[in-house]
UniProtKB/TrEMBL annotation:
Gene3D superfamilies: 3.30.1450.10
Keywords from the named record: Cell outer membrane, Membrane, Signal
Protein name: Outer membrane protein assembly factor BamE
Pfam families to which the protein is assigned, alphabetical: BamE (PF04355)
Organism: Bombella saccharophila
Stretches assigned to the Outer membrane protein assembly factor BamE domain: 47-121
């Protein structure tokens, strides 16, 4: 035991840190971390990538649905109760090391057409127009009974009888009529009969 302690103390003394090596390690660490910013991944585009120069070509009371399709492509969605309202949704996410992706740019373009297909209204919503939605606290009550772990473990004891579906030859009861007709419990014996 003494030799082990002595060799351990010698080993620890050989790993002493000198002030000049600390400064060298700090300089190497700073150089390594400075390169992290240059290697950051590119932003991730999501949705319909619609640019301002594209939808600026649409003219109110003149452009049609065909013009919008040729300039912007098909919409991301239509309004729930109005097929003449087209919605283009786009966003750009930036990946952040050791964190969730951050939404860098978010845009929603809403085009309202009349019944003849002419553009009557155009609205552009940005990230600052978004409404933040929070999770509701609490729990939703559900109907039913609250059973304990013991009740759950012992609740099916005695319900399964593999011999009940085999008839009177193998210990089944009855002639196929009544409560002891050879049918297993639950679902009329389906799943607990032998072929």
């Amino acid at each position: 035991m003494i030799t082990l302690t002595t060799s351990l103390s010698r080993l620890l003394r050989s790993f002493t840190v000198r002030p000049c090596s600390v400064a060298g390690l700090a300089a190497i660490g700073a150089l390594m971390l400075s390169g992290c910013e240059a290697i950051s991944p590119p932003p991730i585009p999501r949705g319909a990538l619609v640019e301002k120069m594209d939808y600026d070509q649409l003219v109110l009371n003149s452009s049609t649905q065909n013009d919008a399709l040729s300039l912007l492509g098909s919409p991301t969605a239509h309004a729930t109760f109005n097929d003449n309202t087209w919605i283009y949704i786009s966003m750009t996410k930036d990946l952040v090391p050791l964190a969730h992706p951050v939404i860098d740019k978010q845009q929603v373009l809403v085009l309202n057409f009349d019944n003849s297909g002419v553009l009557r209204k155009m609205n552009v919503l940005n990230k600052r127009d978004a409404i933040r939605v929070h999770m509701a606290s609490g729990a939703t009550p559900t109907p039913g009974t609250h059973i304990s772990v013991i009740q759950e473990l012992l609740g099916n004891v005695g319900r399964y009888n593999p011999m009940s579906s085999m008839g009177s030859t193998f210990g089944g009861m009855g002639n196929g009529m009544g409560p002891m007709s050879g049918q297993g419990t639950g679902n009329g014996g389906v799943g607990n009969s032998m072929p």
